[in-house]
Amino acid sequence: MDPIRNPYAPGAGQRPPELAGRDEQVGAFDVVLERVARGRPERSLVLTGLRGVGKTVLLNALRSQAVRKGWGTGKLEARPDQRLRRPLSSALHQAVRELAHPEQDQADHVLGVLRAFAQREAGPTAKLREQWSPGIDVPAARGRADSGDIEIDLVELLTDVGGLAADVGKGVAVFIDEMQDLGPDDVSALCAACHEISQSGLPVIVVGAGLPHLPAVLSASKSYSERLFSYQRIDRLSRAEADRALTAPADDEDAAFAEAALTAMYAATGGYPYFIQAYGKAVWDLAPRSPITPEDVAVAAPEAERELAVGFFGSRYERATPGERDYLRAMADAAVAVAEADPAGEGVDVVGSVATSDVAVQLGKKPQSLSPARDSLLKKGLIYSGERGRIAFTVPHFGRYLRENA
User: Fold this and answer.
1) Is 129 part of a structural domain of the chain?
2) 341 pLDDT exceeds 70?
3) In terms of domains, do 163 and 289 share one?
4) 10 occurs within a structural domain
5) Are residues 95 and 38 in the same domain?
């Protein structure tokens, strides 16, 4: 097969040639955009799922929808070591520019408020190099979004931005990736601002994406967050959707998969979009001709697994300390023990979790002594806790990788 015509795209956040299995989310978001632009009440949106299911890809696709509708949009990626003000200021600056409000004075006023919001991060005694602003030429406004209380300031800022969008009959959407990494104060402020904006009927929404425990993070901040956001779980693809992700791009290149090859691909990938792209690329490069056969899949599987072991699994494993790696391996072993005790269960490699007490049993230690390793792995985003006393890998098939390689 000609590698130059290989249509598959295994990359972080890189849109695949066929966005299979996300038609429902794309269609629902079109409705949200139209309702908000017309002043109808609508909730902000939160996408959750494991790594490799395509949350970032979908987030970017939804942003493209908003851009085509003439909305102002901005995107940021939350980081544990960064406060919200600066990246949000950059995102909203882009959104205001995209709105292209015809009255420059009104646009300049909002940009002044935005600059005041951004500069409040540095404080009044900060040196010149620390007084960061997102390329805004107008002077900072006074007495608006500059109190220093992130909750007050964010409500005031989004109110002004929303008013600007309402003037032109459009909306503003802020897209936040890795939303679970926002600090507690920033999460609380964001929830409060979304609550206030929705009550005011202003055309501003937040679209967040994060790991499966993100709803718990939001709920712990504000109890009403359960009703504030529309939560959508992004999961692995069904067999039919996974087949479409492979066959549609192949059809465009006048190639095909044998039915048995599709069966083998689904068994290897588990329906996870990132794995589908990784295996698809390897199989295409190594298959001698079309149609691609199950034998071609068997030959290419080791190459795909090597790529995943380095770029997807290995890079995460390397971030862990020796003690944390022991904890991860014990999680994988505990999952096997659970699966052997209940053969009908799916185990942690798919969507399940294991008890922290079972991990302690595997290591022969008391659960309390393992708290530092567990907490560090949680902060590094390698595991998550969806319920008290239980943990799971954020990466599908990570347990299998650990047992076979680590």
Assistant:
1) yes
2) no
3) no
4) no
5) yes
DSSP 76-116: EE--TTS-SHHHHHHHHHHHHHHH--S-HHHHHHHHHHHHH
- SS3 state of residue 144: coil
Q: Which two tokens stand for residue 10?
A: 């295994």
Describe the chain by its helix, strand, coil percentages, rounded to 5: 55, 10, 35
Instruction: Determine the pLDDT at residue 9.
Output: 87
Number of domains composing the chain? 3
Whether residues 61 and 96 share a domain: the answer is: yes
| Residue-wise pLDDT tens digits, 263-305 | 999 999 999 999 999 999 999 999 999 999 999 999 999 999 9
Could you give the CA distance from residue 70 to residue 58 in angstroms, rounded to a whole number? 19
191 shares a domain with 125: yes
End residue of a domain, out of 173, 198, 233: 233
Structure-block tokens of residue 148: 């220093």
Cβ-contact 31, 66 below 8 angstroms: no
Distance CA 138, CA 112 (A): 6
DSSP character at residue 181: G
Tokens of 52: 């490799």
The pLDDT assigned to 124 comes to 56
Q: Does the pLDDT at position 237 exceed 70?
A: yes
Q: Which residues contact 54 (CB under 8 A, 6 or more apart)?
A: 16, 19, 22, 234, 273, 274
Range of the domain at 157: 23-233
DSSP string over 274-321: HHHHHHHHHHHHH--SSSB-HHHHHHHHHHHHHHHIIIIIIHHHTTS-
Q: Of 181, 205, 233, which marks where a domain is finished?
A: 233
pLDDT at 219: 92
Strand order in the sheet with 390-393: 354-355, 390-393, 383-387
The answer to whether 395 touches 313, Cβ cutoff 8 Å, is yes
Residues 174 and 66 in one domain: yes
- Interatomic CA distance for residues 189 and 211, integer angstroms: 20
Whether residue 170 contacts residue 132, with contact meaning beta carbons closer than 8 Å, is answered with no
Q: Tokens standing for 188?
A: 């609380």
Site of tokens 């980081």:
79
- Helix 23-37 and helix 55-68, axial crossing angle in degrees, nearest 10: 40
The answer on 222 and 103 residing in a single domain is: yes
**And the tokens for 313?**
């699994």
The owner of tokens 């692995």 is 236
The burial class, CB within 10 Å (0-12 / 13-18 / 19+), for 310 is: exposed
> What pLDDT does 404 receive?
87
